[in-house]
Design brief:
With 353 residues, the chain is mainly β. The chain has three helices and 21 strands. It is globular and about 70 Å long.
Length: 353
């Protein structure tokens, strides 16, 4: 609690002082992030409470030693976590070896999955794509402790990373294989970016008093495309599409086979600039998402009908480019007859700083 209050005071002081300041051994300290507050109306039948107020903050502190070296700490605070703790999510160092090549070390995001890696302050909906919370993604993506090389050669970006494989806040373990991840990004034009990535995880053979768990390895594949195309002087067409295929994270099982998980989504929106209005722009956006979870199929049996469809819709009303009112809905539908779908609604306010 004392740490949380101290950090809040520090954030407030830095906000009044400005986003950059100098002191100590570092040339410059910087602070950035976003805060959002919203009322959420849950559409699940008999859900208690039916509606609730929530708030969330993400803050990044950056200390730059010189033009080539900096360190960063990223924290988050959520009112719905059940406590007043501020969680440190990112803690890393970054150094430019040459202008085209940099190295990052510490705890940070695995370069796998655009839906998780894109900046939270720029999302066109209240929440990220639903796949980011499913095992089909979290087995490969998220945060971990490791090392990453980033190369930027004109329009081509290359990321190669090696992690503990055990996730954030955890040392390496001999029972878990280190994770390897790589990402290739091509900015084809000013308005088009395409990318593809791969992540590999696994586990060596483990023998204990209960027996032996066979060695296994699995691969995840991700690809996405980003479009920000100017269709007029005051309007941009926004499109995002991503596909994920996730190999089952576990050993083979006699009597059947685990099928890989898959997910894809497409986002379409139009950012319309406004003149002579209290709003600088509005952006209606819709995102369609199809999720196919891991599934164990017994030999001779048919695959179950267990796909999930998530549709998000949101109207972004920008008071300023960094101050956004969001009015949106999320509809979740299940292919299985045993599951009931629902529609949630929200009214939110997000400010970047």
């Amino acid at each position: 609690m004392k740490y949380a209050l101290g950090l809040v005071v520090l954030v407030a002081a830095l906000s009044f002082a400005g986003s950059d300041f100098s002191g100590g051994c570092a040339e410059t300290f910087g602070i950035s992030g976003y805060t959002k507050a919203w009322i959420y109306m849950n559409g699940t039948e008999d859900y208690n409470p039916a509606n609730t107020f929530r708030a969330y903050n993400w803050t990044s502190f950056t200390a730059r030693l010189n033009d080539n070296v900096y360190g960063s700490v990223g924290t988050q605070f959520a009112t719905y976590n059940g406590d007043m703790d501020i969680q440190v999510c990112d803690a890393f160092l970054n150094m430019d070896i040459i202008p085209e090549l940099s190295i990052k070390a510490g705890q940070f995001k695995i370069p796998f999955g655009y839906a998780f890696n894109c900046a939270g302050g720029g999302i066109y909906f209240l929440d990220r794509a639903a796949v980011t919370g499913m095992p089909e993604f979290t087995n490969y993506g998220g945060r971990d402790v490791g090392l990453k090389l980033h190369g930027q050669f004109d329009m081509v970006g290359i990321d190669v990373a090696y992690f503990n494989g055990t996730g954030a806040y955890t040392d390496a373990d001999t029972t878990i294989t280190k994770e390897f991840a790589a990402l290739l990004t091509v900015k084809a034009t000013d308005w088009l970016t395409v990318a593809g990535g791969v992540a590999m995880i696994g586990q060596p053979a483990i023998t204990d008093t209960s027996g032996t768990v066979e060695e296994w390895s699995a691969t995840g594949i991700d690809a996405y495309v980003l479009v920000d195309y100017p269709i007029s002087e005051n309007a941009d067409l926004i499109f995002q599409g991503e596909f994920l295929q996730s190999g089952y994270a576990g050993p083979e099982v006699i009597g059947g086979e685990w099928e890989a998980g898959m997910a894809f989504y497409g986002l379409l929106g139009v950012n319309i600039g406004l003149e002579n209005s209290f709003l600088t722009s509005i952006m209606p956006a819709v995102r369609y998402e199809s999720l196919s979870p891991y599934e164990f199929v017994v030999v001779g049996a048919d695959a179950a009908e267990d796909n999930i469809t998530v549709i998000d819709g949101c109207l972004n009303c920008y008071l300023t480019p960094m101050n956004d009112i969001q009015i949106g809905v999320r509809n979740v539908a299940y292919e299985a007859d045993t599951m009931d779908g629902y529609t949630d609604m929200y009214l939110g306010w997000r400010m970047n700083f």
